[in-house]
Queue: 2 jobs
Job 1
Amino acid sequence: MMKVAIIGTGYVGLPTGVGLAELGNKVVCVDKIEDKINRLNRGELTLYEDGLEELFKKNVANGMLRFTTNTQTAVKDADIVMLAVGTPPHPLTKEADLKYIYAAAKELAPFLNGYTVVATKSTVPVGTGDEVENIIRQTNPKADFDVVSLPEFLREGFAIHDFFNPDRIVIGTQNDKAQKIMLELYKPFVGKSEFLCVKRRSSETIKYASNAFLAMKIHYINEMADFCEKAGADITEVAKGMGLDSRIGKKFLNPGPGYGGSCFPKDTNAMAQMGKKYGAHLTLIETTIAENDARKIKIGQRVIEAINEHPEGKIAVLGLAFKGGTDDCRESPAIDIIKEMIRYSRNIMVYDPKALENAKTILNNTVHYANSVEEACMNAEVMVILTEWEDFRHLNLTKLKKIMHCPKIIDMRNMLNGEDVKTLGFEYQCVGKKVI
Ligand code: UDX
């Protein structure tokens, strides 16, 4: 059993804290936001993740997990302090903003007590570990500690699943003592997952390089989809054929409206900035960013073109979250596509099974909000699917055809069976193939 303090209780810190407690460690999660800690202490979760609630309640009840706003009490007893605070993009430079990381390092430094590993879980640019080390050393010259990079690869919506089934555990340190402690912490995964002990700077790079690669993979399949549409090929068949090559792999070959979320846009931008900083231009990543942005504009215009006979007609949008299974709208392609459409239309009604409230804070009164698919589609000229919610695979199309003004569907997630939709009499467009 280890004593772990986690600074930051967001999408990374909270599932990690709950997971480590479930593995038998004594965990204290710290956050500056008092309201968040109060809610957690009342047994209320502050974010939704499948499977999180049960483990959270269990480990609070058995005393393995607690929450505080007090850094001192959490840090003084800890064997490991994990930094899991946000590294949002700087609004101007788009570099990762490290002010929260540096502030946390400065704040925790005086309370380090006995040898402690400070592990950075937040996604941070190369060299941040060196700076965290300097800050702690300057603040508390007597502290006995090492700074380790410990990147995390949890997906939103699957954080608990990913925590207990990691593909790899990357430990960035060349210090034996720190490495031993981290290996002890992750001992339950021995034999189940790959362990990789590397230089701190390599570890910091692995996180960005992985996310940027996945973003490029999505951009690649989207570009290939556009090609297939023009060349008369079918992207579903092409992706299947490509994915059967184990060197390429089947995952992340689903074409769509472009990638979004709190990680890929932020991390690709930060990686491109790092490339510039070190004089090693990352042209593939730069192109991916520009083309992913351009894609959303093109899709917005494609929808507007689809209603050119009735420019005042209603547009029904199904899906606002950046992917299915989450209420998160941060950097959602759906939101950017809608923003493009708003330039031409004030008659847009949107629906999402989970993300309506979050979308309202971004789109305000520029669109109308529906409480059901039917309400969104009532009298619509076109229905556009932008997020891959399972519910959208099972739409009652016969009913929708009756209530829509014009039976037209643009399916940007290839959710529907094109042949069936056409047979029902809809005009149908999807990604990367023509359904005749
Ligand atoms: C991602 C990484 O997968 C995870 O390892 C990292 O820790 C955080 O960032 P997440 O942001 O939760 O996770 O979303 P992910 O499931 O990876 O999807 C990202 C975006 O890519 C979404 O907008 C999704 O719709 C899109 N996507 C994904 C596609 O368009 N096609 C695909 O084949 C896969």
Job 2
Amino acid sequence: MTNTEDTIVAVATPPGRGGLGVVRLSGERAEAIATELIRFAKLPLETQRATVGEFYDPQDGRVLDQVVVTCFRRPHSYTAEDVVEIACHGSPVILKFLVELCLKRGARVAEPGEFTMRAFLNGRIDLTQAEAIRDLIESRTLYQARVAAQQMEGAVSARLKPHKQTLMDLIARLEAGIDFAEDDVSVMEWPEVLARLDAIRADLGKLVEGYEYGRIVREGLSLAIVGRPNVGKSSLFNRLLNEDRAIVTATPGTTRDLVAESAQIGGIPLRFVDTAGIREAHDEAERIGVEKSWQAIADSDLRLLVIDASEPWTDADSALLSRLQPLGALLVALNKSDLPPQISSAEMTERLPSSAGDAASRVEIVETSALTGAGVPKLREEILALAVPVRDLGGEEEFITSLRQQQLLKESLQALFKARQAAELQVHHELLLLDLYDALRALDTLTGATNVEDLLGIIFSTFCVGK
Ligand code: GDP
């Protein structure tokens, strides 16, 4: 754990040269250190106003850089402590020297994430917001940034808040029923308890389900493009990217290595999984390589089988289809639709064994031409629709993106499930309370809140027990 009484310092801008480089200080001595190192025309610094100053070498008094300093006084700052941001010209030498001087004057180098951690420790943000700040910084598309920004404002916590309130309320009433049994405290009727528990479970369940989407938004979607040589995989891949990234050739088997190319569809980063390795294996080493490729294909979020519809169906197509189908949702592109067709959508449908129709085993067929671009927008739509089935989750961007959050929600749900069973059996309140506390604790851990005092407050304030 860090000592929040220290004043911490770090270069806040990325390493390297640039127009600007910002040094950030946070803590009690932030302002004192800044004013010792920088000459200003007028002091004290105004709060939340940019002030021009001269950063000089304390050895000889010579000016090193013209800087702009912004001072945020506690608690109205990023960390809720005194924060000073010094914008220098982006020379690594100047920035390094400035940080060294701050250290000499008693500051300490900030650990990674320590500014944000202080914001959390000082109660300015909760854990979901801290995670969102990290996601925002790491976002690769505007859509990802928008989702992160929403969470940074506390969308997840806001969504959980009423549920936590209901739980605390339930706990408070049941506790009161136990502690003050002889008093006239209204304890909730069982059907009411059940109804409340079910309402919370339904909404938490939705959030857990939404994680799959949240994960894809955060991490991107992996798509494996599979097909015989020369059916148009690379061409289609380029069309999806709208760019000429892979080399397209007219010789079968010469287009290779689509590894780690990335693009985006609807603001969701798309990762293409290399499927070049799946060919006929001639020896053991090749066989292992082929199996590895199939593993990567199975692990991807979605699979796209490309068929050359201008040629008759082949056994190789059948082999790929039967291997792909059990892996989950599948997209089939009947490519080269600009040429006279040998395989129609209807025939393709007939080749698919009838499935139970659940979302996981859905197959969508799209006619495409990588040459003209026909069908490619439809293909993009289907990729999104299949890979991300739960896009409509009520509040558009209210979904969780972190595995940590999902696991805690599941924990809470499990405790609520047990609580529900207990309530159905109308067990003693004390047993039910244990589960309710577990459910609440998981939600508290999720947002990083500690609520014992809150609970005591509710128990003793909202109930006029009068003793
Ligand atoms: P891959 O081996 O599956 O990656 O196939 P390529 O993308 O390298 O394409 C093989 C050949 O088919 C190239 O000559 C492409 O120009 C051609 N091709 C790909 N898609 C289409 C299409 O939709 N229509 C036509 N007419 N030719 C295509």
